């Protein structure tokens, strides 16, 4: 599952634009008074101005596994890494990943994720071009198992590597994953912020064009046909 575009809300647009274009150095594609769009590898990321008082997102950028250590040096030169249990380096045996977490100015929990089963990328140097795409986005719900069942039936999206539980699930594949988490569950890595429902609009590649709204949540998922 390839995520081609994500649209999120923010209370304060200017510091967000500064962070994504100057700190992470992502190319600016569009800018308006009430929104901006940057390019993160093959995924476009848009933030729109909102008066919503409670917003919190989690999403992840895939980076090459062979540049994992270089990615940490690059990231630490730009921002602060989040810690959990005394470390800022994490891994998951279940899904075969290595992870770093860091905040943006709105307090959203961002992640660099390297997947052991994806091919390496040439070269030793790490820079913004090694942010290959956004491969995870969190969707906060009240009933995780019900939404897992709905997405499997409606879109044929499968649970990834047996990662489906009562309060958390991963749906998708090695290229892209929807992270379903129960409202109020504490986000990794430091477990300081509770998951809250926040508007998300995303596009993924698929065989047939379609659009669904995941009622009663402010989530719109569009399937864009393969070129």
What is the approximate shape? globular
% residues in beta strands: 35-45%
**Pattern of helices and strands:** EHEEEEHEEEEHEEEEEE
Class computed from helices, strands and strand pairing: mainly beta
Question: What is the number of beta strands?
Answer: 15
Cα distance spanning the termini: 15 Å
CATH topology: 2,3-Dihydroxybiphenyl 1,2-Dioxygenase, domain 1
- Major β-sheet annotation: 8 strands, mixed
Number of domains: 1
Mean pLDDT: 95
Instruction: Estimate the helix proportion, in percent.
Output: 10-25%
The level-1 CATH class: Alpha Beta
Structural commentary:
The chain is mostly beta strands and about 230 residues long. The protein has one domain (about 5-200): 2,3-Dihydroxybiphenyl 1,2-Dioxygenase, domain 1 (Roll). Helix content is about 15%, strand content about 40%. The chain has helices at about 15-25, 70-75, 145-155; strands at about 5-10, 30, 35-40, 45-50, 60, 90, 95-105, 110-115, 135-140, 160-165, 170-175, 175-180, 200-205, 210-215, 220-225. Strands 6-7-8-5-9-12-11-10 form an eight-stranded mixed β-sheet, covered by helices on one side. A hairpin with a 5-residue loop joins β7 (about 95-105) and β8 (about 110-115). The two termini are about 15 Å apart. The mean pLDDT is about 95.
Could you list some keywords that capture this structure?
227 residues; mainly beta; 2,3-Dihydroxybiphenyl 1,2-Dioxygenase, domain 1; eight-stranded mixed β-sheet; 3 helices; 15 strands; 14% helix; globular
């Amino acid at each position: 599952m390839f995520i081609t575009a994500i649209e999120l809300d923010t209370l304060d647009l200017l510091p967000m634009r500064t962070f994504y274009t100057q700190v992470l150095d992502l190319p600016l594609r569009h800018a308006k008074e009430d929104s901006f769009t940057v390019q993160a590898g093959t995924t476009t990321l848009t933030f729109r101005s909102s008066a919503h008082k409670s917003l919190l997102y989690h999403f992840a950028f895939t980076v090459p596994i062979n540049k994992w250590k270089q990615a940490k040096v690059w990231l630490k030169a730009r921002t602060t890494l989040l810690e959990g249990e005394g470390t800022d380096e994490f891994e998951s045996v279940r899904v075969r990943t290595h992870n770093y977490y860091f905040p943006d100015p709105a307090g959203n929990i961002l992640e660099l994720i390297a997947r052991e089963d994806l091919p390496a990328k040439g070269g030793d140097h790490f820079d913004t071009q090694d942010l290959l795409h956004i491969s995870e986005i969190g969707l906060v719900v009240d009933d995780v198992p019900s939404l897992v069942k709905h997405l499997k039936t409606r879109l044929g999206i499968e649970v990834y590597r047996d990662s489906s539980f009562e309060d958390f699930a991963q749906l998708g594949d090695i290229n892209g994953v929807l992270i379903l988490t129960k409202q109020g569950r504490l986000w990794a890595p430091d477990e300081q912020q509770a998951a809250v429902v926040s508007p998300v609009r995303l596009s993924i590649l698929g065989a047939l064009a379609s659009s669904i709204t995941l009622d009663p949540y402010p989530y719109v998922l569009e399937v864009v046909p393969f070129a």
